[in-house]
Amino acid sequence: MSSYKVSFIIPTYNREELLKKTLLSLMKQIDLQLGEYEIIVVDDGSTDNTADLVKNWEFLNIKYIYQKKRRVRIGRARNLGAKVAEGEVLIFLDSGIIADAKLGIQMYQHILNYDDLCLAYVLGFDKNNENEKVIKEVVDLNNLEESIKKLKDLSINDMREVVYSDIGDDLTKWPAPWALFWTACFSVSYKNFHTIGGFDEWYTEYGGEDTDFALSAYTKGYSIRVNKKALTIHYPHEKFINTYTPTQLEFMAELGRNRRITKYPISEVELYHKVGPWQLNKLLLEK
What we know:
CATH class: Alpha Beta
Structural class: alpha/beta
CATH superfamily: Spore Coat Polysaccharide Biosynthesis Protein SpsA, Chain A
Order of helices and strands: EHEHEHEEHEHHHEHHEHHH
Strand content: 15-25%
Radius of gyration: 18 Å
Low-confidence stretches: none
CATH topology: Spore Coat Polysaccharide Biosynthesis Protein SpsA, Chain A
Strand order of the largest sheet: 3-2-1-4-7-6-8-5
Number of strands: 8
């Protein structure tokens, strides 16, 4: 029997201030008592004050795991968090994801009802920090409800909303729902995560591990959904992708492409690498 209803798992690397914002939001969860959830911070080799920050939050049933930095190992970090988790439902959040007060209970109830993979709705989630100035002006951690309302009024949505609005947000009707499975925030039961096999730790640079995880789940028969009532805010920050040169990104993309095509020899995966994630499902639905 699980010790908690929910385990929040946060991989981090030199994101002290962003992590603080995430922890502050998790402290304000309603409909989940403090004793009903735990927080697991997996530090991928930070050299800032992340460890000291976490020590100040021990009252939140917090666990801290540190692994020495050996390239980007976000998949391994998430797996380590899931390994020590004691929650019935795992909710993965990136550092800087600010959780609505009802995120925990929304995700928990969704998994109880559907037993699938559940994407949160991430306001302000964009590619190049297009709305950075506005988001920083609008977001008030002491009044998240109003902050969320303002972001919605300004149409600062989840960037995947373009596709949701175009072909519908019932991902169970999509032929390739894994294409837009990006792990800013998602949930899955503890049991299903380990049955799926966790994240592929082959991915040791930026990106790819989330799409691979979704593909693994989908090809094993698990559904993927988005819960638009499970709200979060993506607080702007420097993106790891910008630390790579175009040549490095092209090389990593080629390696990831070969990995996925080999692991998942289905036509949708080949088409995904030709047309990209944004058009894939629309093209498949039009066939």
